[in-house]
Amino acid sequence: MSDSVLPTTAVEISRAVRAGELSARAVLEVHLSAIDAREDEINAFNLVLADEARAAADAVDRIVADGGDPGLLAGVPLAVKDNLCTRGIPTTCSSRILEGWRPPYDATVVSRVAAAGAISVGKTNLDEFAMGSSTENSAFGPTRNPRDTSRVPGGSSGGSAAAVAAGFAPISLGSDTGGSIRQPAALCGVVGVKPTYGLVSRYGLIAFASSLDQVGPFSTTVADSALLLEAIAGHDPLDSTSIPDADTGAARSLLSVLDDGVAGLRVGLVTELMGEGIAPDVAARVRQAAEALAAAGAEVGEVSIPALSYGLSAYYLIAPAEASSNLARYDGVRYGVRVDADTTAEMNTATRTAGFGAEVKRRIMLGTYALSAGYYDAYYGKALKVRTLICRDFAAAYQNFDVLLTPTSPTTAFRFGEKTADPLSMYLNDICTIPTNLAGHPAMSLPFGAGADGMPVGVQLMAPALAEATMFRAAAVLEAAAPDLSEALR
Amino acid sequence: MSPNLTHEPIEGEHYLITSDLTGDVWEIVVGLEVHCELATVTKLFCGCPNMFGDEPNTNVCPVCLGLPGSLPVLNHQVVELAMRLGRALHCSVEPSVFARKNYFYPDMPKDYQVSQFDRPINVDGWLDLPDGTRVGIERAHIEEDTGKNTHAGGSGRIHGADYSLVDYNRAGVPLVEIVGRPHIRHPEQAKVYIDELRAILLATEASDAKMEEGSLRVDANVSVRRVGDPALGRRCEVKNLNSLRSLGRAIEYESRRQVDLLESGETIKQETRHWDEGAGRTRAGRSKEEAEDYRYFQEPDLVPLAPGAEWIAAIDAALPVLPAQRRVDLAAASGVGITETGVVITVQRDLDTLALAAIAAGGDGRRVLTHVEHNLSGEGAVDLDPSLLANLVQLELAGQITATQAKTVLADMVVTGRTPEVIAAELGFEAMDTSELEGIVDGIIADSPDEWEGYCSGDDKRRGKLQGFFVGAVMKATKGQADGKAVNAILDARRSAVS
Amino acid sequence: MSKVALLARLELTDAELDTYTDQLAAIIDHAADVAALDLADVPPTAHPLPIENVLRPDVVAPSLDRDEVLSQAPSVEDRRFRVPAILGEQP
Known about the structure:
The complex is a heterotrimer of chains A (490), B (499) and C (91).
Chain A: H1 10-18, H2 24-42, E1 45-48, H3 50-65, E2 77-81, H4 108-115, E3 119-124, H5 158-165, E4 171-176, H6 182-188, E5 191-194, E6 214-219, H7 222-232, E7 266-270, H8 280-295, E8 299-303, H9 311-326, H10 344-355, H11 358-371, H12 377-400, E9 403-407, H13 423-427, H14 434-439, E10 443-450, E11 456-462, H15 468-481
Parallel strand pairs in A: 2-3, 2-4, 7-8, 7-9
Antiparallel strand pairs in A: 1-3, 4-6, 5-6, 5-10, 9-11, 10-11
Helix pairs in contact in A: 2-3, 9-11, 9-12
Chain B: E1 5-9, E2 15-19, E3 25-37, E4 74-75, H1 76-88, E5 92-93, E6 99-102, E7 112-115, E8 122-128, E9 134-144, E10 148-152, E11 163-167, E12 174-180, H2 187-203, E13 216-226, E14 236-241, H3 244-263, E15 272-276, E16 281-284, E17 297-298, H4 308-318, H5 323-334, H6 341-348, H7 352-360, H8 365-375, H9 386-397, H10 403-416, H11 420-427, H12 434-447, H13 449-457, H14 460-477, H15 484-498
Parallel strand pairs in B: 14-15
Antiparallel strand pairs in B: 1-2, 2-3, 3-12, 3-13, 5-8, 6-7, 6-17, 8-9, 9-12, 10-11, 13-14, 15-16
Helix pairs in contact in B: 2-3, 5-6, 5-7, 6-8, 7-8, 7-9, 9-10, 12-14, 12-15, 13-14, 14-15
Chain C: H1 2-7, H2 14-30, H3 32-35, E1 55-56, H4 66-71, E2 76-77, E3 80-84
Antiparallel strand pairs in C: 2-3
């Protein structure tokens, strides 16, 4: 079978492999070649798993040869963000402190994709411990945007986004705490989904901010994200914050609704996220997307969500606070790097000082401060109340709208070093994505044309908790209507 | 210990320290914090075995090791036992949440402990002591245990060690921390509180409560104040109390240390102190550079716990009869007060079922209790047929056998299970005629004129000694069949007749 | 700030402390709008999920293989994790 007819999407690959029309091994080799060709330039991976992948692909082919069904993702190459535990395979969170650590267990999502026949091709690069919006905070060097290697791919799941954008794998797994799937998806021009909090198991996802983290898919098509999400979603008894299956049926049946269209769907453009702070070319694309939905039969209106203006501040108190606690375990005692000293306390300090990068230290300091005696009520305590306001405002908005439409990122991909001097300017990248993490709602980014600089623009769809189906219906329409990257702004 | 302080125990609860220097009288105020390991099969948040004594680091998993990416899931049985314990302590069971207590220590896999902070599962209960005191229980909450450090090198104790070795088998074992209000006023009372708590833990099967194995750990908050002063003094927390004896000794030492300081014009530093059993004193904990700031916040990896009225009702319905209630029941049946030693000891020895049955079978309550207290502490007592005990007591009260004889018969009954009539007959016990007894007593008085003279005219001490001589002689002459009380009565009567 | 660093077991140079203090101040300033709000009547949301009472049965599940666990440890002695001298008692 020649390369030109080789399917490139997960949906097509798995169908063909399961039908015996295509060997998983052949698919894999094509992708390994792509990795070979550009990985040095892109640096999407911390670790490429060529041998393991070949063995896995051969195993899938054997199952098919024996008349069995390898699963929903049969033979589909998949990249895994390096903050998901993979048994016996180094999992570093792109941090020196976990360099070389081999977890003795698999994350639930990793087990599920393997059980579905997917072929893991490698562990992807990220901002250290998922803290960042550009992947410049990785201890192992930044990942480069495949569309323009002088620019960042976004973060923190920069490696997973770039891997898909560069054709290294049709799908990849990332994690999203304040936009870490959606923002890099937008900057790289791919699809990225943050599911409803609790829809996908967090067991084995190395925690950043526990009440905000979710694992989600990257893909080149909406259908592929639906496929991957169906494979990983669902209750996990090992995760207390995992929603029971009885409540998530609709959210896990996405492929079947993709063609349902948007007739009568009420779409809201969020006022607070279309004005100051958003680059004009990005805003223009969002309006264009709104028009496309209207043309397909949706009712488009505007909605104000006042509490959103406090979202950034609340997030940058809650997330670092939880992170400061989640990262305390990296103390050099049981695993990871250790810098020796005479006493345990000194050893802890020396290890953490040497092992953590600047951004991680900054957030640990911020989080520790926000929780400390005398400051709890003013900062962390208040932020939890702001969270309530945001939830209430969303609830009010969803009284009158079914999905909300916003930019994903205020700008297109910026250049390396552009925002590293001032952390606050980096944090502002997240203003569109943070609110849904705080509310626990689903959101996704899909490519919708290019900005003034020719770089991809992503538009974001948001929906109420467990309303993934509605969100994906709108996404499918937007996908069909999306302008080419080469098409200039009107 | 300061020579200026004397301790005068006063009847009842109070333990008072009097200063010779100033004449001030101080009382002690003690609140106990008790950690109990719950008797579940598995740990609090994972399926690792909850076992004491296994090979190090064999009962560990990603969750209890706190490996990156791991998450906790709450054990149903922990909630059941925690609620059972809470209700046994008359607490109110409330909807609760878990919280993280953040600090660094190598026996803590996550460098935070999952506990309950501002919304614990059990609040506002109490515990009634045998002496009638009601000790308030502020809260009884769920938390996870830490691993165990072994200190190597140096002296083997933590100070001066070269390094430490950590075993995480115990990490994640479920604990309930019971916080008692400062209602205890006597070192003995503190020990009784622990005994009572242990009895409740065993009765509810919530814990095996062994101080020596660490499944029951006690810390004492001790402060002092002048009698009559309504304000509480500044307290110190005393740790490393590995036995009831240590608990009592430590409270005594610490309270006097504090009085000493305050009497010399100094103030008490609020600190944690450690009990040194060998030296018999408390020592200040190693001074830390920073005061700990635990930065409590709600545990985001766990969801709230709201057991609901149905579950609580089921727990209440299944609660066993607790020691305090058993004392009430036994006291009522025997017509005595609940603080009577006989009542307390009978329940302590788990012989109240026997006693109640014996009373129901017609035995006099007081006599039954006396027998249990003084004569039934050994093996086999619990299997004694209660009707036999009732029978024995009836014979006693009918005057057919003496109290001393009854003791012998009872011992035989426990072993052989024969009726008291049969045993008494076999041993040749029978009631001694009063005039026959008088005759024997008079005979002995006649044979021992010097002793008799000393008995009649001597001081109390001398008389007491000689009384023993005469009673002993009578017992010998009657081969133990005389009733001690009757002999004493006759001796008294004879003496009065002389003077 | 140096107290915060101590609580977090981080050693920062004076330069770093200064930088962090400034940066954190900027972020805290930005968060001042939050601090200034009167939210007395608003309950906190610690969690986006309305789930309660997630419990598991008291049944043993397999533990990890000790060798696999200890193989990842920086220092091991006598089947335990070895650490340098511990000053101070468990709080």
